[in-house]
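Dear colleague,

As promised, here are the two records you asked about, laid out in our usual form so they can be pasted straight into your sheet.

NAME FIELD: protein one
SEQUENCE, THEN STRUCTURE:
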Amino acid sequence: MTSRQTGALVALTGAVSFLIGLVAAGTRPQDATERVAVRPVPVAADPGPGATPASSTLPAPPGGPASVDFAAVAARVNAAVVNVDAAARGATARWRRDTVDDPNAPREGSGSGFIIDRSGLILTNYHVIEGADRITTTLGDGRSFRAEIVGVDPAIDVALLQIPAHDSLPVAALGNSDTLRVGEWVCAIGNPLGYVHSVTVGVISFLGRKLFDQSLDAYIQTDAAISFGNSGGPLIDAHGQVVGITTAISAQASNIGFAIPITQVVAILPQLRETGRVTRGFIGVGLTDLTPALHRALRIEPDRGALVQDVSPDTPAERAGLRAYDVITRVDSVGIRSDEDLIRYISGRPPGSLASLEVWREGAARSVSVKLTERPLAETARSRATRLQSVRPVAARDQGPLGMTVRDLDRANAMRQGIPDTIEGVIVMDVDPAGPARLARLRTGHIVLEINRRRVTSAADFLTIVNSLKPGEVAAMLVYDKISDQRLITAIVVDPPS
């Protein structure tokens, strides 16, 4: 063998070894409803002798993955990660059954969790333990404990469990997810596909991702490998602190996972411990961000705020006289820059309390007092998906400058589709996949109610208004979405003639 061949062989061997060294392991989920009383305890209690205190963190990594000692992170946090096994007897349970021959055999599923306090408190996902009759947690050292449910919050998919207090329980330190940055290195620990205590590494891919509930969701997206069974496990930063709870994966890709920000979880822990459930303030409006395009189209004076799209009937917002196109700029003297600012603030207020809103309407600011009620639990994305099947596009001849066609909404058609009598407009029949309407998120089945605040009661009205728009002009369109049963405001840019 020549020296050149020898060198090539060594280089190839080194490359293969490097790639093998990059491979990491991967994840699994499942579900309860009973509640027990537990004395309130501080989340960040002193872990005591023999455990790593929350304040003892790794030094800040200066650069890429080579400078992050995830081996040390995993060694410190792994012991606090638990396997969560849930079993249910009910025939309606959605889980795997041990045997097809015995209809009374328990349904079982598993996920992950992590201990946050020496008193035996464990965080996991609500969907991991939902409907379970028995929950068993197993620690990394092999000890098993039966867990009881302290509290659940289905809205953000969080559950707090309790196992017997023990001095030797390892504790995971909670960090601050508000300081995360896109591109920052993180790792996930869990039990993917039953492979317990698997560690995977990746980066933060996106912050504030919306998945199921457009108002409450603020998921951390990561490419750290997450699979079924990781649900409820910790997402950990380079300092060894928990910054999220892994909870979902994309069905279209193997490297897109999502975690609940830990600061969102910490905010509800007192309610979970003390009452077993979470209540949030609610005013009953559909909101959108006041984007530059909508600001321009609607000629609104404030350039920041929460734009009201819809007001639900029999809600605090309706009783307070809020309307579509109102812009909420302040609440209780706190400035509101976006719809998420308002949702976060109102959700943090207790039901029954009064909130003072500053509202911009028709060129003037006014004060509105609203008495909050309790936020209802939103329907799940799954149930919405089943209703989507009833909407079928119809081919159209000319889609016009907005890339969409409409037809009159007659009462018989409205009744068949379950559209309320109060909705008057035209129904979208077809949307150009590459047209302005598609970019504005309009879809087949939407009801167009207004364009630039001009009512649309017929297809003739729609054509008259659309034909008066100039190429490149931004138009504000108010539509009704029967899937969410809400009015929505969207900005659409008129296409030039082809």
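NAME FIELD: protein two
SEQUENCE, THEN STRUCTURE:
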Amino acid sequence: MAGGRPKIVDRCCTVLLVDNEEMILDFAGRIIQRLGHRVLTVPSCELAYRIAEENGGTIDLVILDYCSAASNGEKVLKRFKEVNDDLKIMITSGYCEFGPVSSLLKEQGFDFIQKPFTEAELTDKVNWMLS
């Protein structure tokens, strides 16, 4: 993020956090809550889909661990966009190389944060995506 820290988001947003690691759900969930946002933490993409379909218009940001997307990450990402084409999506991963995701990031406008991330890094990314 060039130019220093992004502006603080001045409204409460809803963030859907999808990760199969309970520690990440807890850590990232607490950070997002401290930013003043509502956070829905789910351990699987299937449950996340149901929540997104039921609350599609009220979810502002999905933070998705690419590995939680099981064998077909591209399909998972497209399915979220089908629920709400304007939905902002941030992908997380502990892997440095992920081939097809790099093109998705550019083509679809998804953002990315590398694991392990710090509280400051996640705060900056969430604020930037929701501003």
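A couple of things worth noting about protein two: Residues 14-130 form a domain with the Rossmann fold fold (CATH 3.40.50.2300). The chain is about 45% helix and 20% strand.

Best,
R.
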